[in-house]
């Protein structure tokens, strides 16, 4: 691919740069992978977790969540997030990338850049390249890896490093809170 033609395209950034919001990015100008994943991967995955929790399962069959990776850099501002994406675009203009920037936590002062990957090779490539770019933007920050949607799965299953395709619920005390969170998410998705 011609280096000059490869870009990272952003969705619409809210007028306000503070508070909680997410903005998708992708190396496809139509954000096709992002849009496909919402109803083709993410929503079915969340519904699968919801059904298993409602049924009272003591272990969760992860399905696509097992091969869903998040490679995350925590930064001080949305401007730093944009600078990191710009650096990535300039230094590593290859492959298909997608993810989001922003924060889902209104009380947080920081913002994050989250790249998504669906296999270990892509996860490792993004981890390494994002780390190199981050050194130029904020050398004090670091890149973190997680699996699946942390606010759902990690609060139930614990550290992702110990999961198998079917993982025991390590924190059953969080079941009702996670069910409510999923129910709220599914309601919003249907709105």
How would you describe what is shown here?
- The protein has 191 residues and is of the alpha+beta class.
- It has one domain (9-190).
- The chain is 41% helix and 20% strand.
- It is built from 5 helices and 8 strands; from the N terminus they run ββαββαββαβαβα.
- A 6-stranded antiparallel β-sheet has the order 1-2-5-6-4-7, sandwiched between helices. A two-stranded antiparallel ribbon has the order 3-8.
- A hairpin with a 7-residue loop joins β5 and β6 (111-117).
- The longest helix is centred in the N-terminal third of the chain and has 23 residues, at 32-54.
- The termini are far apart.
- The mean pLDDT is 90.
Can I get a quick summary?
This protein has 191 residues and is α+β, with helices and mostly antiparallel strands. The chain is 41% helix and 20% strand. The chain has one domain.
The unreliable regions are none
Percent of residues in β-strands: 15-25%
Mean pLDDT comes to 90
SS-based class: alpha+beta
Output the number of helix runs: 5
Q: What is the 3D shape?
A: globular
Cα end-to-end separation? 39 Å
Keywords:
two-stranded antiparallel sheet; 191 residues; 41% helix; globular; six-stranded antiparallel beta sheet; 20% strand; alpha+beta; 5 helices
